[in-house]
Amino acid sequence: MDGSAEPRIKEKRWKIDFEEEMIKKWESEDWWKFDPNSDRPVFVIDTPPPYPAPVWHIGAAVSYSMQDIIARIHRMLSYNVLYPIGMDRNGIPIEMYVEKYENINMWEHDRTEFERLCKNYLDQWTEKMRQIMKRLELSGDYEENYYQTDWPEYRGLTQLTFKILWDNGLIYEAERPNNWCPHCKTTIADAEIEYKEKDGTLYYLKYKVKETGEDLIVATTRPELLFGCKAIIVHPDDDRYKHLHGKTAIAPLIGREAPIIPHKEADPEFGTGAVHICSFGDVTDVRLFRELKLEPVRVVDTEGKLTEAAGKYAGMTVKEARKAIVEDLEKEGLLVDKKPIKHKVPVHERCKHEIEIIPMKEYYLKQTEFLDTLRKYAEEMEWYPEKYKQHLLNWINSVTVDWPISRRRYYGTELPIWYNKKTGERFVYADGKYRKPWKELPPELPEGWNPEDVEGEWRTLDTWMDSSISVLFITKWMRDEEFFKKTFENGTKLRPQGYEIIRTWLYYSLLRVHQLTGKRAFEKVFINGMGLDEQGRKMSKSLGNVIDPFDIINKYGTDALRMYIALETSIGENYRISEQKIQGAGKFLTKLWNIARFISMFEPVDERPELTPTDEWILSELNKVRDKVINYYKEFDFHNAALELRKFTWNVFADHYIELVKRRARGEEGFSEEESKAARWTLYEVLRQLLLLFAPIIPAITDKIWRELYSEESIHAQQFPERIEGIKDYSELTEKIVEFNSTVWNTKKKKGIKFYEPISGIEIPEELEPFRKDLVATHQLQ
Predict the structure, then answer these.
(1) Distance between CA atoms of residues 130 and 549, nearest Å
(2) N or C: which end of the chain has fewer CB within 10 A?
(3) Inter-residue contact 692 to 715 (CB < 8 Å)
(4) Quick one: pLDDT band at residue 1, thresholds 50, 70, 90?
């Protein structure tokens, strides 16, 4: 009997166009949807809502593809997966963009009109980003559970959380030193600060000791803060200065007296070992002012200019004042030296401008009293990989003050507060409906308040106040009790994200969810690494090495990119984007297509026939691979899963089993119909299982082949395959089979014998006797 025919897969090659064909099919199906009525266990993915932008980074494409692989894995593990797609649309990035490209100043523009401009740009970019995400084959929910953080529903929930925490005494207003960005004109939290290494100058200033008349040289990088100097500290064990403990130093140029205090905070190795402590110079200065009970002087204002406390230098920018003061110190002989220095400078992570510490009246969320609980949560959560748990613990251990949550910006969620201008009273109101206090009144006012005397708050909340409740929004907290119970309370919740936002998004989410629900936000945390260029450098516009994912997709296809991601990225490790390796991953897709097309030439066999030892060998090897891959998937390790699958598919199944059974599958002379059926059934079964196991990683090609050969229903609506039972395990002979085949092929090559021609003088090892018939037929052994 001839078991072969025309291939049912007509196309000779896998085409990128097929991906878009599959994406369109998926959009009309519902296997990716969360089913609130299902009894299956629930798996919630709190996907990071990306910030819409004109161009997306390939590193982001890789990160979101990883999250999609996780979603697909869990559907095939029988979970009911809630995988919403969201967009983070609040905050400074869009404000800066509108100011730049509309050539306007936010503070001089009508707020309503400015917000309209922000929204217009965001709407354009959001739609483009949604299309990019779909083209990346992300199987998230873009419909029923889609969200945007600037939606009235989302902002309304954020305002409601503010009121709940206010009522519980966890939010308060106070004036205290804050990180201030003069460029963005707003307070920022410690978590929004980056430290950039910059070139600077260490200036050596000449103080005079009042009691002895001797010079005391103090080194500083910021001589403009001289006007805020209230003390000089030296290390208690520094013998150079022991005789000056308790004496008085007179500051150059201004003649102000400052006590010389022994303190362990002074570093004898830095500069001269004598350090002047200035109001709001840095966090150490702030702490020491508080500890030493010194009266601070405000030297820098919110515009980044010196105040009246700086005398003739008032009104100058920090850099202008530094230059002028250094010139005057030199003229007076009060600058004894200056040396170049590399030092770390705090900058705002958003705009990259240097920050100042300025006393401001802001609203704060209590956090220090919750740190022990957050440490406990960090220990309880499952981390993938484990090493990033310490990153969170390190951040928790660094927190010493409460979180300033009010921001002096426009495009964000306003604080839901109204003030009585006559009495100075404050009214906090929120019911879940979004309101703009600066332009509308609440539905009710306290008794005795005249609406004409009411002024609404204009400031917005830190955008992390919005983002940190994403898991509550997607599980419908305070909106759908049954849905919330099913997803948040009874589901397994995963937070996938980059390591660079552990101290912000993950930390704030754990804090806020605990404060609002008394529960831990997540059971599992998946941390992905960062995409670098081929030289190992971070991708940036300045280096000109940013890769647009669309360029890669249009050239090689999404499945090729996803296969590359799985093969090349280990959990939590940085990875180098290599176009050559993406192209290489695409070659495997061609191999898989060719395998499937070859198998499709054979007539399928419905019922499992009696199998030969060769069939049992490949099926037992497949069982081992299946077990390993599913275990890897459960640990979010699709890197090793992909390596295992590729190795088996190419190096074992294609190179050896298919070669061993070609003749038998065709029903050539010497093989019975039952033996031919066994080969054909096994070919289809191995391919079927491989497609199912590969499906989370390369969803388009696997679904295309699946629908051509197995079912009209999507492969993504299936579960992972079960082990094949009732077979003898020959998997321990795999190396022997591979070795024997390779030996025969190499021998033929050396002797100039074609692979399909007979050869004599080769003995089949005793342990391979069960496979004699296939070995003899394949190699034409005489």
Answers:
(1) 14
(2) C
(3) yes
(4) very low
